[in-house]
Structures are given as C-alpha cells and as structure tokens.
Amino acid sequence: MRLKDRRVKTHSCSEIHGELEGQEVCLAGYVRVIRDLGGIKFFILYDRDGEIQIAAPRVQTPPEVFTKIDQITPESTVWVRGRVKRTPQAPRGVEVIPQEIEVFSRASVPLPLDPTGRIKSSLDTRLNARILDLRHPKRRAIFKIRHVVTNAIREFLNSRGFLEVQTPKIVATATESGSALFPVAYFEKEAFLSQSPQLFKEILTGCFEKVYEIGPIFRAEEFNTNKHLNECTSVDIEMAFSNCDDVMRVLEELIIFTLKKTKELAEKELEVLGRKLEVPEAPFPRYSYTEVLQILEKKGIRIEWGEDLPTPAEKALGEDRGFYFITEWPTKTKPFYAMPCKHDERVTETFDLMWKDLELASGGTRIHDPQLLERRLEENGLNPENFEPHLRHFRWGLIPPHAGWGLGLDRFLMVLTGEQNIRECVLFPRDRHRLVP
Ligand code: ATP
Ligand code: MN
C-alpha cells in the first residue's frame, strides 16, 4: 500500500511509542496547543483515546509543510504523515516529525467555547456546542463510563438468562396515570410516545419468562429539575414466577456487578473525573414506607401516611445513606398494576431503590389476576375498556405471576460519575427548553 496516495490512519495517537522510532506513521485527529518558536513549530494532535506531540523543525520539515502549520487553528481536524522520533523532552517521550499535513476541516476562530475548560462556559452554552464540549476529557470520560455501564448491565442480565427485547415507542394508552404523555400525530388515530415499556414487558413474561429492555422513555414533565428529562433511557426487566424480593435481589446484584466492572474497565475515566467508587455489599438496607415516615418524624419532618415523599423529605432521609430500598408503598402512590400486600391491602409489594436522596429505580410484584387488574384500573380513575388489548392476555390466562423494575440509566450515571445534573450524563438532553441539538 502506498500511504502517500490515501489519507489513511495507520495508528491512533496512543499507539505511538518509542519502539516505533524511525517508522513512518499516518495519524488523524484534532489539534490543540499550537506553538511557533521560529526554528521549530509544535502542536498537539489528539484523537478519541490519546494525544501525541507533532514537532516540525525547519531543517527537517518540507517547506510547504512548515508553512502549512501556520494555517492550522485550535480544534481543526488534520491528517499527518510523519516519522516517529524518541525525544525525552516531549510530553510522552516521543513525537512525530511531519512530512505531509492535510487540514480536513479548519476550525473557526473564535469557537463558541474553550474545550480545554480553562475558560468556563455555562451548561447552556456547552450543550449548544455539544460536540466541541465533548472534546473535553472529562465529558468524554462520562460517556465512556456510560458505554461500560450499558455493556455491564447487558452482560449481567444475559448471564441470568434474560432475553433482550425492543418494544414499541408509539403507543395507544398510558401506563401510569398522572404522568403526562406526549401526543403523536398518527394518521387518523390518537397515539402517544411511550412512558415505559411496562405493559409490553409484563405480557412478554407469558412467553419468554425473563425479558429486559434498554430504551428510551418519554415523559411530558413540565418542570425543569436536575434529575428529570423529557426523554431518558430506562433499563427495564420483568421476570415470570417471581416476586418483589426476587427482583430486588437481581437489582442489587446488578448494581454491584456494574460498579465492579466500571472500576475495572473505566479506571482511567474514573481517575479523569476524580471519582472513587465504593462497591456496596448486598443486601442493601431495606425500610418500609411506614418505617421511613418514623425515621423522618425523628428528624422533625411529618408526612401524612399515604403521601409521596416530597423533595425535602428525600434530602433528609438520604443525607446519611448510600444505596437503600424503600418498600411497601401505599397503594395510592403506585400505579394500577402494583400488587397489594396480602397482610395489608393499603400497601403494595413495591420498592424504590434510592441512592442518597435520588430515586434510581421503582419496581415490585405485579397483579396477574384480570379481575383485580380491572378493579385497580377503576380505582385509579382509568377506563378498563381502553386497556382491553392489554387485559385480554390476562383474561385468556396467559400471564404468569411476575415482577420487575425500571432503572433510570441516566440517573444511575449521575451516581457513578458524581455529576449533579442529569444533563451532563446524556449526549443531547431533551428538556422543556431544549430540543436542539
Ligand atoms: P420521579 O418520582 O423521580 O419523577 P418516577 O417515580 O415518576 O420518578 P418511574 O415511573 O418509577 O419514575 O420510572 C422508573 C425510573 O426511571 C425512575 O426511578 C427514574 O430513575 C427514571 N425516570 C423516570 N422519569 C424520569 C425522568 N423524567 N427523567 C429521568 N429519569 C426518569
Ligand atoms: Mn418511581
């Protein structure tokens, strides 16, 4: 192959080592820190996983290449063919002397923000220029961790015999009363963006037993908080012949497995973020909803039994805790499909997984008796007729006893990275005010 004829990339920046001394390499990436010392010009070339110094001494560089360096602006995308040279003074003890340079894309001056982070920009400015923002090593570390986490979750669930599924995101009915829906113009019919794969994953236990989905959910939450988005990614599981306790154990083990994998496979990225991960032990502490009210009472916070926990209560509860479960939620705080407890119909076989004051997951045992489902729909002010395409699977007697949960992937990433705003953990967040990019 004649490298001169094609702008190939033979090595990534991190692959350039002293042992390649004298060898010709072709690199491609982005530029930062350009310096002109008269007799020698330098720049740093970086790519997806590393960087290397390009050093052009006047005497060793073809004249047209030497002058071309003057046209390069920070963050431009370039291709470099050159020779590897061991140089103790170079940042990595090695550099490349260019023989040929091509500027693929010349970055404008000034750019909307400084990707090195030396000049601080607001989150809004950063998200408006997200690709430039993602050139910052800290931001890229977050998404490398997200990749490792997603793989670890798949590895764990696959090893437990779960089948990965994809369910429709355009749906005809709501799954949770209350949480707002986004309508979709769907020909002659009324349709919505899916809030949760709940109903599909439940009926799938009638043929696959154990299923999971990692996919988008859409919620028309009107408020803007640091932990809510209008489009987020949910990890959902559903298991036949299981109850609330069984799926809590799966979740606990998944969290531990994922934390261990992240420490192992994203060591460098955790270091870039200055993040030390502590792997908790199973079982995580479990408190019933009623116990939580007593704990809060001792902290001087009174909540009416049956009410959801308001933010200040979550704050007070989470201040001295890591991962923990809140179980047996009052029936009226949970959706229609939540199974009432045998010992007390006012509470359900449900749980929330918390990390400090942040809710990460909700789940529990589901109702599989069609009469009870119908009654609970009515009690929730929902019309069972609208749910008939779902309910008939239960009436036909196809659906086993089952349980499951939904874990917010973006919120889990906040825990792993230590980020305070969910938008930092999503490439292109969607909130009330942001629809581009
Ligand atoms: P919250 O009370 O915090 O708004 P929720 O109880 O309405 O959450 P669930 O229906 O239980 O949410 O969804 C399961 C999980 O999905 C949540 O525990 C959370 O991690 C995540 N999640 C739900 N809604 C959002 C959202 N709008 N933005 C980000 N994550 C979300
Ligand atoms: Mn919830």
Tell me what the structure shows.
- A hairpin with a 7-residue loop joins strand 4 and strand 5 (94-105).
- The protein is 27% helix and 26% strand.
- The strands form 3 sheets. It has an 8-stranded mixed β-sheet, sandwiched between helices.
- It has 437 residues and is α+β, with helices and mostly antiparallel strands.
- It has 2 domains: 3-105, Nucleic acid-binding proteins (OB fold (Dihydrolipoamide Acetyltransferase, E2P), Beta Barrel), CATH 2.40.50.140; 132-425, BirA Bifunctional Protein, domain 2.
- The mean pLDDT is 96.
- The two termini are 40 Å apart.
- The protein is built from 12 helices and 16 strands.
- The protein binds adenosine-5'-triphosphate and manganese (II) ion.
List keywords for this structure.
437 residues; alpha+beta; OB fold (Dihydrolipoamide Acetyltransferase, E2P); BirA Bifunctional Protein, domain 2; eight-stranded mixed β-sheet; five-stranded mixed beta barrel; 12 helices; 16 strands; 27% helix; binds adenosine-5'-triphosphate; binds manganese (II) ion
Short description:
The protein has 437 residues and is of the alpha+beta class.
